[in-house]
Amino acid sequence: MKILHKTDFDFLKYRKITYGISIALLLAGMISLVFKGLNYGIDFRGGSDVVVRFEKNVDVGSVRTVLKDAGISGTLKQYGMDRSFLLSTVFSGETNELKALITNALKDRLPDNEHEIVRIDSVGPSIASDMKWSALKALFAALAAILLYVGIRFELKFATAGVIAIFHDVFFILGMFSILGGVFTFMPLEMDQSIIAAFLTVAGYSVTDTVVVYDRIRERIRGRKPSEYEAIFNESMNQTLTRTVITSGTTMITVLILFIFAGPAIRGFAFAVFAGILIGTYSSLFIAVPIVYDWLRLKKSAVKLRGGSAS
Amino acid sequence: MKNKPFNLFLIVLVTIVSLWSLWPTWRDYSLTRQIDRFASAEDSLKFSLAHREEIENIRKKSLKLGLDLKGGMHLVMEVDQIDLFEQKAWNKDAKFDAIMARVRQKASSSDASVIDLIVSEFRKENIRLSRYFYDIRNTDREITDKLRKESEDALARAREIIRNRIDQYGVAEPVITTQGSRRLIIELAGISDENRVRNLLKGTAKLEFKLLRDPEVLLRVLDKVNSSLAVKQPLVAVISDTARTGLPVGQLQPAQAEKTPQTGPLTEVLTVMQNGSVYVPEDSKDFVAQLFRRNDVSALIPQDSELLLAAKPDQFEDGKNYYPVFLLRKTAELTGGVITEAKATFSAEGAQPEVLMEMNSDGTAKWARITGANIGKRIAIVLDGAVYSAPVVQSKIPNGNSVINGIESVEEAKDLEIVLKAGALPAPVRILEERTVGPSLGADYIRAGAVSLVSGFLAVTAFMLIYYRIAGFAANAAVVLNILIVLSVLAGFSASLSLPGIAGIVLTIGMAVDANVLIYERIREELDEGKSVVTAVTAGYDKAFSSILDSHVTTLAAAYLLYTFGIGPIQGFAVTLMIGTAASLFTAIIVTKEIFGFMLSRNILSARSFG
User: Is B424 part of any domain?
Assistant: First the structure.
């Protein structure tokens, strides 16, 4: 079986259009980030999340009223499992009291529907700000490490274009989280630690895609004139296209499976990685490689690449 | 293409080590299944007793599940450094209190080290640290060094004490680590009563023996506080104060707010008995306790005195609970440091749980002197700022025995015994972060993780078989070995498998085939150019190598950074991703290559074998 065998797409021809599409998407994301902002999870804003599961079906409105009457502030939402609700409230170092308050109220008002508090996550404000910083540090360290590695293995222009593509991917997901945050009840799309993990996974993935194309370009570009670059770039992308599609495909299948089966705690992560792989594949072909091509065209000189295949 | 003996040896070795490392996990699983299968509890007990040694042994070596999968608590606690430093300071005055209050406020909103905050606040006031800390001749630098040492010691001590408490409470394999200079990370699996554990960990266990002031003084003081509050502070302000601190509302009756201020807020809620003892009804307890802590209120109290409430309420005839109010000498006569032994038992009458304590020789001597000098007076036993009992001293106590009563339940007596034996924490601790997963949700997570793992594996391997046919077998063998390696490394290093970890494995399955896809596509290209199978396979591996290396290094770098900067659950994901990526480098480059080498030597492989 063969898919996309011996293709001959002119990827570079459409680069002006794809640049435009990407800029438009990123701008939309930015505008949403500025005006709507992000839906922060408790990891980054501090607070308590309590998951309550009931024995029998109960409607979210009645539980909300009961908790409100008990003086518990915060929001109550359906959690992605049967008969479960997620209460997000302010941080309290006194989990026992919070629990007692919830339990007493529910026992009092919904006596014939047993409930169980199955999960409590509580993050204090100082820890939350710590986590925000380490998340940012991890992201920027990853970008710097990738810039350095690709710079050493290929060339600075290639590395920069690769990092621009990663920025593109990460900001795309951020924008999407901002636009879609809170829209779906089955996935709140909150920014928390797992989304940072998704960013780093996507960054690693996106640069993998890009590097595979780079590698092919490196193999073929040696001793060729700048006027032949367009053909070489296009051919390299076509030759690696099958691999790109298959790997993205298998990874996306597994991520989709995580999204469906691994439960609500993983859902936001799976969604981010799924979108990230999609956009990462796109950005390798339509952002990273075209940027390198444009850059080399401006310089008008032959590029010297380090390293090469083992043969 | 010939098989290299060394590579073959390596593959066999890795497989054997992986299987060997996972053997206890398998044994553990099958033994547990066997125990569950027995019809009667007696049979299963007999079976577990017979295999006790083996079970204990394999449990230690088998793959551990994370707290989120088996249920448990993950806590981050912080030692209150400001409180610690306040204890260390001497000749404290109003100015010192004001500075520390500012430091406390700033510390709650920023990450800066408390010592730095103190230094900067002192500098702003142009006061040398030596005015309050250590020796007057010390420079600021020496003092900050000493304070830093002090807080490190306090953290280490707090860790030991908390470990003692947990050990005595009885939790299997607790993990207690320190993070930075003031945080403790505590991981406890399989907790049946979280509330009890939280209380056990949080309590400072500062035990003090304090003399009671005369009842008349108490009444006079309360009167003074009351009238001053009535004039100065409208009660409404007090209520909004309570609301701001985020205390659960509901304790405060709204009716109180409407009462005329002339009578004063205190007399409204206090009940004075004939014998001069004062009580607060349960619903006003938090309000009064907060009032007593206010600075303007403590200014009205005579020197070296404090107002405290009882730990437990008394039940009155009207069926309501009332908390006694005490006025005590602030300086403790004796503190918990002298306690050598504590024992939870029942009182002589048999019904009430209590805790008996013994003191060391120094404490015994002091206790004898104190009791001897105060016969007929009342001495309060105060634990973490709450009065447990305030018995009248009947006679001199020469043997260093004392009793805490007024305890509600046997569990509480047991917990008191634990904390008293383990000793007091050097400073109060606070819970900063908590992640608790109940066992039922954990079971759900395991099911969800297993389903994802199996379906992810089936989907990817089925695709590889359909798309690459015989070559797909080799890739799938690599995926199987890859998963084996990840699990066995986790088991071998006693790392635990969490739900994010499973997500990491599922993701690795998708990515692990990437290396093989790169190679196979390359081989197909070479075959298309009309090369022989042997040349095509060799060229495919050689030419794909640099792409594979680059992509694995970048993924490894990202996962490593995630591990370094990530906290808690995310680290589990990063670890499996790292092991999986490294394993994939091995399986793709060495394992599948050897499989092809074998198949080529047997002439099993043809150009059609690559789909």
Answer: no
What's the CATH class of domain A12-41+127-299? mainly alpha
Task: Give pLDDT, residue B95.
Answer: 83
B242 inside domain = yes
Nearest to B525 among A71, A72, A239 (CB): A239
Sorted by sequence, the CB contacts under 8 Å of residue A218 that are 6+ apart come out as A154, A305, A307, A308, A309
Residue B244 lies in a domain: yes
**Do the Cβ atoms of A200 and B510 come within 8 Å?**
no
Is there a single domain that holds both residue B230 and residue B295? yes
B248 contacts A197? CB cut-off 8 A = no
Architecture of the structural domain at A47-123: 2-Layer Sandwich (3.30)
* Cβ neighbours around B46 below 10 Å, total: 12
The alpha-helical segments, DSSP class H, found in B233-360 are: 235-244, 254-258, 265-269, 285-293, 295-298
User: Which value does ipTM take for this structure?
Assistant: 0.89
Query: Structural domain of residue B355, as residue ranges?
Result: 208-403
Q: Quick check: A258 and B456 CB within 8 A?
A: yes
pLDDT(B596) > 60: yes
Tens digit of each residue's pLDDT (9 = 90 or more) over A250-260: 999 999 999 99
pLDDT confidence tier of residue A124, bands split at 50, 70 and 90: confident
Task: Please give the Cα distance from B567 to B422 (Å, whole number).
Answer: 29
| Chain A residues within an 8 Å CB radius of B513 | 247, 250
Q: Answer whether residue B429 is part of any domain.
A: no
Measured between alpha carbons, how far is A101 from A106 in angstroms, rounded to an integer?
9
In B212-283, DSSP assigns E strands to 271-272, 278-281
With CA atoms as reference, the chain A residue closest to B251 would be A71
d(C-alpha A111, C-alpha B555), whole Å = 52
Q: What is the pLDDT of residue B243?
A: 38
- Domain edges within chain A: 12-41+127-299, 47-123
- Which pLDDT tens digit goes with each residue over B490-543? 998 888 888 889 988 988 888 788 888 989 989 988 988 888 888 999 998 988
Rounded (10°) CA dihedral B504, B509, B512, B517: -140
Residue with the larger pLDDT of the pair B420 and A282: A282
> Do both B189 and B218 map to the same domain?
no
Q: Are residues B390 and B473 in the same domain?
A: no
Q: Select from A72, A138, A255 the Cβ nearest to the Cβ of B562.
A: A138
Are B232 and B354 in a shared domain? yes
How many domains does one find in chain B?
3
* CATH code: domain of residue B476: 1.20.1640.10
Q: Is the pLDDT of residue A311 over 70?
A: no
CA A32 to chain centre: 16
Give me the CATH number covering residue B94: 3.30.70.3400
Closest residue of chain A to B505, computed from CA coordinates = A254
3-state secondary structure of A301: coil
Query: What's residue A279's pLDDT?
Result: 95
- Mean pLDDT on A126-135: 84
Say whether both B356 and B236 belong to one domain: yes
CB contact under 8 A, B499 and A138: no
Identify which of B517, B546, B553 has the shortest CB distance to residue A149: B553
Instruction: Tell me the mean pLDDT in the region B93-120.
Output: 82
What is chain B's mean pLDDT, rounded?
83
Per-residue HEC secondary structure of B142-179 comes to HHHHHHHHHHHHHHHHHHHHHHHHHHHHCCCCCEEEEE
Non-local (6+) Cβ contacts of B385 within 8 A are: B206, B308
Contact A1 B555 (CB under 8 A): no
Select the residue of A129, A215, A254 nearest B547 (Cβ to Cβ): A215
